[in-house]
Amino acid sequence: MRDFKAARAPEPNAKWLKLRVRLLFGLFLSLLGVAFGRAVFLQVFEQEKLRGLAQDQYVRQIEIPARRGDIFDRRGTPLAQSVEVDSIWVDPSMLPDLRAASRALAKALKVDADEMAARLGRAKRFAWVKRQAKPQEVEAVKALGLPGFGFTKEPKRFYPQRELGAHVVGMVGMDGHGLEGLELAFEDELSGQNSRMSGFRDAKGRKLLVQGALDPLERQGAAVTLTIDRHLQYVTEKALAKAVEESKAVAGMAVVLDPRTGELLAIANHPRFNPNNPGAGSRGEMRNRAALDTFEPGSTMKPFVVATALDQGAITPDSTFFCENGAWPIGRHIINDTHPYGWLAPRGILQVSSNICMSKIAQTLGREKLVAGYHAFGFAERTGLALPGEGRGVIPFPKAEVALATQSYGQGMTATAVQIASAYGALANDGVLMRPYLVSKVVDPDGVVLMENRPTEIRRVVSSKVARQVVGMLESVVDKGGTAPRAAMAEYRVAGKTGTAQKADPVARGYSDKRIASFAGMVPAESPRAVILVVVDEPKTDVYGGLVAAPAFKEIATAAMAHLAVPPSKTVAPEVAVAAVSPAPAAAKPVAVKATVPPRTAIEDAVTETPEPGTVRVPDVQGQVGREAVVKLLAATLEPQVMGSGRVVSQTPAAGSLVEKGARVTLELATRQ
C-alpha cells in the first residue's frame, strides 16, 4: 500500500519553524555570550569598585574621637580633664508624630518645644537632640520609649577647679576644639589623633563595631603641666576679687612670679568666669588681660629708670634733684607731684614717687639710654608665653621734652602685667632678666616629653650692685613715710613701688579722669622668692595704688611666704606672733605657772625661749592643720617641709628639741578618716 504522507512534500510552515528555532538559538547564544562577557568584565575589571559599593551598604568607617589631654598645675592637680558622656540623636522619619515627640523631648530636656520641632523638621534621617547630655537627661529620653533614637559617646571637657585659673587654661567649644587660653595655644598637642575603624551597620542603619575597643592611649592627647600653683592661684584670685569689689573697680589683674626661675606661679583676672558654663559670661570676662592686654603702667616704671641711670653712671645714689615744690612747667605743660617736695635723692624720689624729680633723672640719662633701658628690661617685646594674642606694648621714642618726662613715670607707653612682673623679677634676681614661662612640660601618653621649659637667662640688665641698691631704695616705699605702708609685713622685708596711671581717652585723644592703680613688690627684699603685681582698673573709692592695690599684695605675699616655707626675715616679737597665729592647744614643753600669772602660749615659748644664742626649741604642732603648723614654725624661725595634706600626724625633730635657727622641720600630714 502506498504511503501518501511520506510522499507528500514539506509544507512551507515547517521550513520557517526550523529557521525560527535556529534564530532563537543564535539569539540566546548571543545573549549568553554577552552575559558571560559582562560577568567577566565585572568580576575581573570592576572587581574593586563593586566590592567597595557592596561594603558601603553594610560597612562604615567609624571615627573614634581622641580623648583630649589633661592640664595640670605644678603639683599635679588637674585643671582640665575630659570625660565620656552621651550625646542624643534621632531619625525624624521614624517618629510617628513629630510635633508630639518634640513636646515630649522639650519637657524631658527642659528646652523650647518650638525650637526642638523646627530642628527635627529640618532634618530627614538624622538630627542631634542634645549633645553632651547629662546622665539624667539621657535617662529621661530613654524613658519616653520613642523609636528612632540613638546614643553615642563623645568626650566632654570638664574643669574640676571651676573658675580657678580659667583665664589661663581657657576653654573648648562643643566640637572639642580649643577656643581660648592654653586650650587654643596647645590645640595640636592636647587634641591627639582621632582613630578610624570599620564597623557593620544593621538594617536600621545603626553602627556595630566589628573590632575590639581601641587602646585609650592610642587616642589620647598629650598632657600639659603648668608652672601655676593651685594654692597661690586661689589666694591671688581671692585677694584680687576683694580689692576690685571694695574699690568698686571695673576689673583687675595680678601676677605672681618666681624671680629666680621666671616661673609664673599665679595669673589672676577679675571678673572671673566658669569654663564649665561659658555662656553665663561675656566675651570680655574670658580674656586673659594680665598676659594679653597692654596699658600705661604709671609710676611702677620709675625703678627701671633709676636702675638704668645708676648703671649708666648718669647718677649716683647720693645725687640730689630739686622737685620744684610740686609743679614744674615744661613748655606748655606742667608736671605735678601729689605733694610739694624740695631736694631729694633717688631713694627719696622713689619713696614719695616724685614725677618731677624722675623727669629730671630721665633728662640726665638721655632719650636713647632711657628707651634702651626699657628695652633691656623686656618691654616692647613679647615674653613668649605661647598664648595667642599676647600683648607686646610700645615704647615710642620721646622726641619732645614732655614725652621724655611722661615716659619716665610710665605714661605715654604701654606694657602688659606679665612684662612688668618680669622686669621687677630682674631687679629681684640681682639684675638678671629671666624668661617668664607658663608651661612646664608637655608629655604624650607614652611618657615621651614633647616640650619642656627650663629657667632661661635672657640677659643681664644692670649690675648686681645696682639691682641691690634699687631694691634697697624700694624698701622705703613701704615705710611710714612712703606711698605704700599698707604693703609692709611684720615678718618679712618688703620692697615695692606704687603706680597711679591716668587712662587715655581714645575719643578725646587725651587723658580721662579714670585711673589704673597698681603695686609691684618683692618679698623678702633681701632674697626675693616672689614678685607680686596687683593692678586695679578704674577704682572708684580711692585711686592710689598704695591704698587700693597694696593691701591685696600683702594678703598674697603672706600666703605665698607660708606656702613656700620661707623663713621670716624680721625678728618677730612675741605679741606679734601671738596676734598672727592661732594659739596652739598645747605647748611643746609644759610650764608650771601660778594661778595669778597668765599661762604662756606655745608660740611665745617658741619665739622667746632660746637657751643658747642661735638656737630655738621646736614647737609642738601635732594635730594642727598644715597651714597653721607652717605659720607656727616660720614664726619660730624654722623651715617647715610638708609631706601630704590634712593635719600633722608626726614631726621631725620632735617637739621641744633644741635646734639651730633656720633648721628644717619635716611635717607628715594625713587626713583623718
Automatic annotation (TrEMBL):
The protein in question is named Transpeptidase family protein
Where is the protein situated, by its record's location annotation? Membrane
- This protein's source sits in the domain of life called Bacteria
Q: What organism is listed for this UniProt entry?
A: Pyxidicoccus parkwayensis
Q: What is its main location?
A: membrane
Q: Which Pfam families match?
A: PASTA (PF03793), PBP_dimer (PF03717), Transpeptidase (PF00905)
CDD domains, from UniProt? PASTA_Pbp2x-like_2
Every PASTA domain range: 610-671
- Swiss-Prot/TrEMBL keywords: Carboxypeptidase, Hydrolase, Membrane, Protease
Is Amino-acid biosynthesis one of the keywords UniProt gives this record?
no
Q: Where are the transmembrane segments?
A: none
